[in-house]
Amino acid sequence: MKPRHKRALLIVAALVVIGVAALLILNALNSNIALYVTPSDVAAGKSPQGQAFRIGGMVKEGSVKRDGLTVNFVITDLAKDIPVAYTGILPDLFKEGKGAVIQGRLNPSGQFIASEVLAKHDENYMPPEAKHALEQAQKNGSAK
Fold this sequence. Notes:
By secondary structure, the protein is an alpha+beta fold. The chain has helices at 3-32, 39-43, 128-143; strands at residues 35-37, 53-59, 65-67, 70-76, 81-87, 99-106, 112-119. The radius of gyration is 22 Å and the shape is elongated.
């Protein structure tokens, strides 16, 4: 084989390896993405099916019920409510009437099974998506 053919073969092999590596990286990123969805979107059926996603809003007053390490509560955007079940230790800042973002999956009965609960970290912070969703829900609720 001529040196020119060896070089061409080496370049083609390197491109194939780079292509395979890029596909594996993109696949890993795609499988770990968690989309943000509001309770109104979940109620309207716009949530990802069979895939983990994040839902955010306010923890409804009077909805937190504890049973050992399992906590059941309702997350709301002031227009729609979604029941949530979480097994584990909640963040210290998790409280009724405060903002939270929950990651997990929706089960067939419509309950959100959380794998992670994130609470706001100070008095003024709310995720931009959650703030926008609450504002939209308030506008839609007052327009009715």
